Each structure stands twice: as C-alpha cells, then as structure tokens.
Amino acid sequence: MWKKQKIIWVIPIICVILILAGLYIYKQNQVEEMTYSTFLEKVEAGQIEEVVIDGSSKMKVKVKGDLDTSYITDNPRNPELKEFLLKKNIKVEETDSITTTNIFQGLIMLGIFFIAFRYASKKITPQNSGSSMNLNIKELEFNKIQHFSFSDVAGNEEAKEQVEDIIDFLKNPEKYVKYGARMPKGIIFYGPPGTGKTLMAKAISGEAKVPFFSVSGSDFVQMYVGVGASRVRELFEKARKAGKAVIFIDEIDALGKKRANNPTGGNDERDQTLNALLTEMSGFKENEGIIVIAATNRLDILDEALLRPGRFDRHVEIGLPDVNGREHILKLHVKNKPISDQVDLKKLAKQTVYFSGAMLENLLNEAAIISAKRNGKFIDWNDIDKAFYAVVAGSEKKNRDAILKIEREITAYHEAGHALITKLVAPNNTVSRVTIIPSTKGAGGFSMNIPPDKMYYTKKEMEAQIKINLAGRVAEELIFGEDNITTGASNDIEKATKIIRDYIIKYGMSKKVGLLNMDVLFNNKSQGFVEKTLIEECSKSIKRLYDETKETMIENKFYLNQIAEILLLKESINEDDLNDIMERNFIIEEKNVNKSHFQKAMRIKPVVETV
Ligand code: ADP
Ligand code: ZN
To answer: Which of 227, 316, 485, 581 has a beta carbon 3.0–4.6 Å from 223's, enabling a disulfide?
Structure first.
C-alpha cells in the first residue's frame, strides 16, 4: 500500500521537472524550422547573417534583423556549402556538435533520466528482483533457437547453396583450419522485408546446432553515447562464452548506413556503435566458429567499411519468391491446416505475384481464421479469396447500407475503368478480382491487377501500367464530368507518379532527359532548374498517357458500361466474368446514365479511396 502511494507521488514530480526543464530549454533558444529552399532563397536575397554548421543533420541559421530567433534547416552536408556562403559574405561558423548549452542540456536530461530510471526500476517493478542491474542485457533479448532447419525455408535455393559451407564450417571449424581456408566472419542477407532472412539465419544456426543471438540495428538508435558500443561488446562476449554461435543483426542499415560527406568528421553514437561492431569482428579469429549474419532491405545504402574483406564480405540475396517458390511456401504453410482438396495452390501461387513469404503466410493464416469463424470443415477457396482481399486491401466492410447510391456508381465506373484498360493495353496481366465492396481500410473498391512475373519491363509495359493506374480517374471524368472527379484516385496517382519518375530519371526512357540518371548527376542535391524540367517532363508524359487512355476508353465505352453495370449487380467479378464481358458472351441491358442526376446527387463528402 505504502509503495503504491509513493509511486503516485513520484510520477507527477518527475513530470513537473520534465516540463520545467523543457520550458527552460525552449526559452534558452527560440528555435524555428526553415525549409532548405527558403534558406537558399534568403541566401540569394542577402538576408542571412550567420550559419552555424556542425556534424549533425541540421544547421543553425541567423537571419538579419531577427537575431533573437535561431532557425534550423537541413544540413545538406555539402563540403562546398561553406565556400558558397562565404562568397556571399555570410558568416560561417563550424563547430563540433557539442556546445556548452548542449552539454548543459544534456546534463539536465541525464540527471532527470537517471532519477526517473532509478524510480522506475526500483519502485515500479520490484518483482523483477535483480533485473534492474542487468537492464542492458535484458533489453537485447537474446533468443536461443534450436530445432530450426532448412526444411522450414521454402524456395530460396540459390541462397541456401550459398550458405551450405557455412553450416559445415560451424559444425566443424577445425576441418577448415586444416585446409588453411579462411571462412567469412560476416554474411549479409539482403532483400525485401518478409522474404525469410531471419528465418534463414535461424535455419543456419539450427542446422549447425549452435546457439543463436539476435539483436536489431534499430534498437541501437537513440541510445546514449557509449551504450550502443557496450551492448555490442556484451553481445559478442555472450557469443564467445557459448563457444560457437550465430550472431544475427537485423536491420543493419540502422547502424551502418553510408556516412554522408561530413566535413566535421561526424562522431555520433551510431558511428561509435558501428566501430565497436567492426572492432569486435576483427577481434575474433576466423576459425573460432562464430559467424555474424546481418540483414538489410538494401545493400547499396550500407557503408563500404562494413562490406570490406574480413567483415561482411559475403553477400547473399534473398529476393521475392517466384511462382514455384510461392507454391513451395504455400505448401509449407498449409501443412498444419485443414485445407480443402479443391484449393489449387498452384493457381494461388500464380495470383500472388510480388507477395513475400511473410505475406503468403499471413494470407493462409487469415484464411484459416475466416474458416474457423464460420466453423467450416475445411479451408476452402472462398475463405482464401476473402483472405486475399483482406491482405491486399483490408477486410470487407460489413455494413454497406450507408454507402450512397452515387458512390457505388462512381466506384463501379472507376474500377471498371481500371479493369477495361488492363484488358485492352496489358492483355498479359491478370485481373484476378474487381470489386466495389469497400474495405475497412478505406478503399471504396478494388481492382487487382497483376503484371506477369518478369525480369525486365519494356517501355510499353511501363506506359501500360501507368495507363491502368490513370484509368479509374479517366472513367470518372468520362461518365460524370470533369467537375465531378473524386478523391478516389489519389492512390492511383501516387503509383502513376512513381512509375513515370523511374521511367524518366532511372531508366532513361524519356527522349527529352535522355540516358541520364538524375540522382547520380546531381547527387541528390536540390537544383531548382532541374526539378522544374523534371516536373514539366513528368506532367507532360502523364498528360499524354491520360489522353491516350481516354481515347481508348471512349472507343470502348460499350465495355466500360457493361463492366460497371455487372459490378453494380454482382459487387465482385473475377477474371472469367471479365473475359466473358469482353468476348460479348452476354450483354447487360444498359441503364440510362443521366449525368445531371449525378451532378445533383454529388456532395463534397465522397472519399472513395480506391485502389
Ligand atoms: P525477413 O527477415 O526477411 O523480414 P522473416 O524471416 O522474418 O523475413 O519472415 C517472416 C515469416 O514469413 C517467417 O517467419 C515465415 O513464416 C514466412 N516466410 C518468409 N519467407 C519464407 C520462406 N522462404 N519459406 C517459408 N516461410 C517463409
Ligand atoms: Zn483506382
């Protein structure tokens, strides 16, 4: 009882101290954000008095006539910036990121945290006796994993081959000593999320029957100076004590991202942690039987220091599964589920292009839940179909009474537009499902369009993909008029923009810009005139593709009406239905689409977020 009362006391006191300290720091320096482009404008206008650059990602700016306020803007970390500013007669001060106020603030915060920490560990969790002293270690969450094997990993055959020798080495390092072979100390698994990188690392440790220690790079972010480094040392100490071991570092990029050109050298916590990791890795002998496996989504953003020989010098790609891989993964994950004989996993594998292993696992799990809810004897195709929709777009909205008739109609035409254009410009794509059933995630309807599994895409295919994305909006405009287009196309526009961006700046497919990669050319620095050219080129291309789509749609308006009408009738159609419509196997009596009627019914509200 007494303890509880004390906690009730302590928490408000800490809060008050925190608020006071916050206010104090806030008053110390009135700081406001300034965008980098505003900053450049002010530089050009001669309004900047002084710039303070330190090693951090931000720099401090003083504006003439307003010296009481400090402005903060992004530090482009461009070594030429200083000269550029000096030439403009702007005072430039370079400091280490630690200033006296920083130290002072740091000390206050440290003090507060220390007090808060002591109270938190002592009073609030007295049951975990003794654990407070070991907090560092506990938070690392070492997992000991056994009984994992390669049979848990489906597909990824090339990756498995690339690590087979590692397993043999972990089992029997002496053998490799005898042959004078130098084994890699570190391996990097790279590839999209959910492709089984963690699973593979566990499988290696399971196959070799050695303990598995894991930690995530993101755990080290925002730690106090030195803490990250000491945790790394603890991690390796644990592994060494275990004799042989697999150390797994997930999200290594959080620690080992490329260092930007940093004139002041940059000596932050992240670097210290990274250095500790590299030191530890060079500390153990090749043939000790310890292997460090790191995972990242992207190899190209990692600091070269990590990738040098003797560090993470073996790079294994773990990519999205192809159709066979997907079938394997599905087969693996239905093993413990009562699946109906009617379910064709090959067909499902074909429909799930771009799905990662984790997404496939999730799909089957959702299907199992749906089946269990309805007390089904087996998981059938219908359950899988529902789960598929839920995984991609969120589960179906149950109460659909509230949807305005007009919204249903707009959605129907929007989705019909996507489906029709897919059939016309990309006949090799699969349209596995078109629906106007809204999902709980906010999509008004949904049209699943799957390009064939390919290594390369042609210019024509990229353009087709953009047209498919624009087609929803084209249909809205064509049927309901320019003034009645809706916000439902936002997601489509986002996708189309991404494709046209890559088309121009990455793949050199625009004649005007030519075979240049803009990111390389300008090193990601903002260049007003280039941006303007790019925007012009993007919007010109999109406009051209939009107009072409519109033309195609006008020519095929009959089919557009047919698809929309059937959608309004059935809510969902599949590829076979769509093919039937396109082959005129049945024709639906067209309703008279009366535009003025729609205009009256339009409200500001409709937010048909469709995919
Ligand atoms: P990553 O580390 O690449 O983000 P994970 O290893 O955490 O991915 O994968 C998450 C889950 O997805 C796994 O636990 C497993 O259930 C499933 N999974 C992913 N890839 C595969 C695969 N190749 N074979 C079997 N299951 C997989
Ligand atoms: Zn759309």
So the answer is: 227
